[in-house]
Design goal:
Strand content of chain A: 15-25%
Number of strands of chain A: 5
Order of helices and strands of chain A: EEHEHEHHEH
Radius of gyration of chain A: 14 Å
Oligomer: heterodimer
Number of strands of chain B: 5
Helix content of chain A: 40-55%
Largest sheet of chain A: 5 strands, mixed
Structural class of chain A: alpha/beta
Radius of gyration of chain B: 16 Å
Shape of chain B: globular
Helix content of chain B: 10-25%
Strand content of chain B: 15-25%
Strand order of the largest sheet of chain A: 1-2-3-4-5
Order of helices and strands of chain B: EHHEEHEE
Shape of chain A: globular
Strand order of the largest sheet of chain B: 1-2-3-5-4
Chain lengths: 125, 165
Amino acid sequence: MNITIYEEQQGLVVVAPLERLDAFVAQDFRERVGEYLDTGVSNFVIDLSDTPFLDSAGMAILVSVMKRCRQAGGDVSLVWPKHEPVKRILQLTRFDRVFDVYETRKEAVDAMLVTLGGQRERTAL
Amino acid sequence: MSDEWVQIRIPATYQSLKSLEQPVEGVLAGVEALAEPESTAYNVLLALHELCTNIIRHAYVGEPGWIAIAMRIERQPLQLRISVLDQGSHTFDLNQWLAPHLSEPSSGGMGLGLITQLMDEVHYQPCAGDNRWHLVKTLTCLAPNTSHPIDSTLTTSATTGSLRK
């Protein structure tokens, strides 16, 4: 699967699927993200801005990853797809009620890092 | 008055679903001044993709097979009709299906809910070895020289003919 993954500071991982996220690649995507989950990473930004197609299998993976992260004390934020029809489907399925969704990767990363920084300070006190 | 049927046959594999895009866009390209063509094409494609995914997963259950799809535009009223036939040995009991609330994302089961949201009619005739689905999408054209639909009553409504919720 054509996907970009890179590690931000404070253990945040950014994942950007660059092609269809559907039933055919869903397992591959789950495994790629799972590799990070298994090492203890629990905070992700999933950047859908260049994802041209997203089906229910892809959406289910996003929810599954989110649930796993929240159980581990972390979270998943999303970046809205640039492709308007894909964005509308995420709105139809109310993804913005369950996830924090941002217009750009930078906004999502910055917001997540602020949250992570705050968590670290509370832990240190 | 109707256009000709566009017929395709694809292997019952997830990998083959990419090939649905071109026929769907091709059929809709035959509708002049279609309102929101990009969204309409994507929504139809997604509904058909979800249906085929369900067929692969629940009708064939890993067995090899084919999915036959026929599409055509009907002009009075303006609609896209899609018929899907599979020869999977398993059937699906639509009457037992409880539509998941698309008001909250879930980690499974959203496919059929998406189909019923995106299409105006969904009909299913189960028969092991000869399962048939029929989908209908009402289409809207733009009035000449405007961005307004010609007939505002031709809007999408989630009428699911054969579903009992």
